Amino acid sequence: MNDKLIIAGKSYSSRLLVGTGKYKDFAETRAALDASGAEIVTVAIRRTNLGQNANEPNLLDSVPPSKFTYLPNTAGCYTADDAVRTLRLARELLDGHNLVKLEVLGDPQSLYPNVVETLAAAKTLVAEGFQVMVYTSDDPIIAKQLEDIGCVAIMPLASLIGSGMGILNPWNLQLVMERVQVPVIVDAGVGTASDAAIAMELGCDGVLMNTAIAAAQNPVLMAGAMKKAVEAGREAYLAGRMPKKLYSASPSSPTAGIISSTRS
User: Fold this and answer.
1) Amino acid 252: pLDDT
2) 62: buried, middle or exposed (CB in 10 Å: 19+, 13-18, 0-12)?
3) Stretch (H or E) spanning 196
């Protein structure tokens, strides 16, 4: 089945995007990424060594950009200016890399997106040639505004970052998907494989996760489970589920031509 995820003109076979933080070491990071089948990996520029610290392990050695598409993000940024500076640094560290994930947070407790600062940062970054995938609320109006600015993917939260609460408002996600034409990728809140499957069954183009894998008791095993869940959810969406019928049962076998059990 030729069913590729297209972002900024490039196609990907996997619809699962995975973060590189919170693992015990870079070896576990790589093992989990391999098990997940992910091709796009997020990197928190402020928290990960990409060569800034010469005497520390470098993520680039364990997760080479020749094998994975890096998606530098602005985790930990609370203003538009801070986010823009961080992604300019990322472009410098990664030799002109333009595909980025923008997130501007509102507060350190909820990590809910500050959409006002997000919109401002998106305008600046797009004007500077960045291809912006953007973390945002599940508000369809904001999603459309971000698309109109020029963002290449909209990434609404399922629930709060790192909460593992799953998809709390599927209706808003559907409104976002109806409103925008660029890919919609669920970002934040996924806790287990069924959450990822539900996101894909709703029609989302992909799922991004980090804590759900890294904080599992067996991250590598969970990464494999997430891979299967995303694939199964996507196939179920493409297949088209049967309609729900309230108070209306239907036999699973044909009723015509049944052999009578009446004795003569």
Assistant:
1) 67
2) middle
3) helix 193-202
The 3-state DSSP class for residue 135 equals: strand
Residue 52 pLDDT greater than 80, yes or no: no
- What does the pLDDT read at residue 93? 83
Options 4, 22, 67, 101, the catalytic residue: 101
d(CA 68, CA 11): 13
Is pLDDT of 264 > 70? no
What is the rounded CA–CA span in Å between residue 33 and residue 195?
Answer: 19
- The answer to whether 74 touches 88, Cβ cutoff 8 Å, is no
Lay out the sheet containing 16-19: strands in order across.
153-156, 131-136, 99-102, 69-73, 40-44, 16-19, 206-209, 185-187
pTM of the predicted model as reported, rounded to 2 decimal places? 0.88
101 is known as an active-site residue? yes
Neighbours of 37 (CB within 10 A): 18
User: 248 is written with which tokens?
Assistant: 């209306």
Pairing mode of beta strands 10-12, 5-7: antiparallel
For residue 92, CA distances in Å to 89, 95, 119, 124, 134 come to: 5, 5, 23, 17, 20
Tens of pLDDT along 134-174? 999 999 999 999 999 999 999 999 999 888 899 999 999 99
Are 50 and 73 contacting, i.e. CB atoms less than 8 angstroms apart?
no
Q: Quick one: 53 exposed, middle or buried, by C-beta within 10 A (0-12, 13-18, 19+)?
A: exposed
Instruction: Give the range among 6-15, 27-36, 249-258 with minimum mean pLDDT.
Output: 249-258
For 84-95, what is each residue's pLDDT tens digit? 999 999 898 888
